[in-house]
Amino acid sequence: MTLYFVGLAALVAAGLSALLLRHRPALADRSYGLLAGAGCVLAALPAVRVLAGGPAVEGQLGSWAFGIDLLSSAFLLVVLIPGLASALYGARTPSAARMLFVIELAALALVVTARGVIPFLIAWEVMAVLAYFLVTFEHERAEVRRAGLVYLVATHTGTLALLAMFASWAGPSGSLGFDALAARAGTLPGGGAVVLCLALFGFGLKAGLVPLHFWLPDAHATAPSHVSALMSGVVIKMGIYGLFRVVSLLGVPPAWWGWLVLALGAVSAVLGVLWALAQHDLKRLLAYHSVENIGIILMGLGAGVLGISYRVPLVAILGFAGAVLHTLNHALFKSLLFLGAGATYHATGTRDLDRLGGLARRMPLTWITFLIASVAIVGLPPLNGFVSEWVVYRALVGGVTSAGPIRLSLVAVAALALVGGLALACFAKVCGIVFLGAPRSAEAAQGHEADAGMLAPMFGLAAACVLIGLAPALAVGPALAVGGSVARVAVDTAGSGIPEAVTRIGLLSLMLGALLALGSLAWGVLRRRRPTKQAETWGCGYALPTARMQYTASSFAAPLLAAYGPLSGVHETRSRTAFHSHAREIVLEGAILPVWAAVRGALWRLRPIQHGRLWVYLLYLIAVLLLLLLYLAGLVGGAPR
Question: Global pTM?
Fold first, then answer.
């Protein structure tokens, strides 16, 4: 654990150097980058060693215990790899923002290694509060302040649920170490139903599953792009880690909870990608895809729980492994997508899809990395998203081919297939509208390539996506080990034939990668040999074609969204001269805000009782005391004398 703690200290030192050396920008930038890089590498080394087959490690920070087991190791990589890329991408932000960012990384690392309730909740709260400051760093805009307020209320509501969960779990003994909680798991009433429900609410609110996702789109869209990458790629995964840790401590959760998680995952995945398809704002669209991918992760987690409950070890291992691997993969390609969105916003000054276009010529390197991330998030080979979704598919299909109620997981297979199709349509829209065609506005026409400081982290994340896709055994093997540790089943006893399947997937990815490389090479050679002709695109005979005649984000998605009706959240406005559509946040605007308005109105009607006069307040106290005395005397409510 020494390297781990030294790494966290280096992260804190990176933030302090950025703040203390702010009057010497060049030195501050170099020291920040070196210390942040060294800190992430040092903190990740023990995790890599454990995932490679080494023993778990334990350590103390004062009186608090911390440790790195297989589960913590996987999530440490989820924190540190995209966290480092985002930190380097934001190296030119104000010094205070950089300090907050790297301390947030340290807090995230402490969350996944804490071995007791007290250090876990302290690190959790530090993580939540620092994330609020990062989201609202550009607080001059009203929408940023609103998004920060909604996030703050949501995250502290989740923290209250976690406090209640740990209090009910510890019971009269008050033992707050994770080992003590695991020992008490067998004595919890109802198989730990209260603990599991509170965990699903508290951690689910942080993860952003439907319908607890309402805070996520605004917070991720309005934050600085490297903060959005951290929030979407890493911070929401702390909710997933919390659910995994609860399952690992409880042992065998009841089957009903597994079905609930699986159902919520399927709903989140389908609705998340549907709502993403309806968006016009690039970063809001990416934020809703986080809801979708959290749903895919929960489908794997639910399948793993069902595998434990119905004693199907193969399904349990594959479900947990798929969820863990997709957590890592999503952290990689979603961080890359947000960084790419930040590069386009930096170059054009707009996130509106209908004002972009033609950026592939002006930003070819950004376009390449964004395209790689888009293929990965859709789940197509030969990239990493395909590998993790394949493992989740294998888990669900394993349930279908088993005996008993677990065969009903067939519905989740259909849901996952639908999600893949809608995601493909959504990113065909994004890549086509943003990067292809002609510029739709002056901002898009003035777009320019990002600088090296922004491109380097993006290419690093893209390389990680390609590496896992072309060599899946590097990631699937450790993920299976993590799944086996959570399920408490040895991987080699499951009789799965997984290594052979992983080898075949690797060969398929390599073949597809080679074909793509050869095709790209041939295309490049042909372009050099044949002169390029410039001509107007045929506009159906119209004499004066303009950029406005291209497909818009709305028109591209309209045929698909129309099939889902009001569920898509699209609100249309028509007049004699114009037609406009925009996407509404169904849960926030359709449920939470109306309820809040009703509560606020009811409380406002009680406002007249607050006169500001002392003698009136004394009368209130006297009246309450009289009512209490009457009650105690047995004259009110039939109370005993």
Answer: 0.91
Residue 441: C-alpha distances to residues 350, 366, 447 (Å): 10, 19, 10
Helix (H, G, I), strand (E, B) or coil at 59: strand
In a domain, 142, yes or no: no
- The pLDDT of residue 256: 94
Residue 117: the pLDDT is 93
The answer to whether 205 and 161 have CB atoms below 8 angstroms apart is: yes
Dist. CA 155–CA 639, nearest whole Å: 41
β-strands 579-583, 57-61 pairing: unpaired
Q: Are residues 448 and 336 in the same domain?
A: yes
Q: How far apart are CA 428 and CA 438, in angstroms?
A: 16
Q: Which domain holds residue 610?
A: 589-632
Q: Looking at residue 233, what DSSP letter applies?
A: I
* pLDDT tens string 397-413: 988 888 788 888 889 99
Which residues pair with residue 68 across a beta bridge?
57
State pLDDT tens for residues 1-36. 889 999 999 999 999 999 999 889 889 999 999 999
Q: Do 334 and 461 sit in the same domain of this protein? A: yes
- In this structure, are residues 297 and 323 in contact, taking their beta carbons and an 8 Å threshold? yes
Structural domains in the chain (count): 2
Question: Which tokens sit at 147?
Answer: 């998004």
Distance of CA 15 to the CA centre of its chain: 24
What tokens appear for 55 in the block? 């023993």
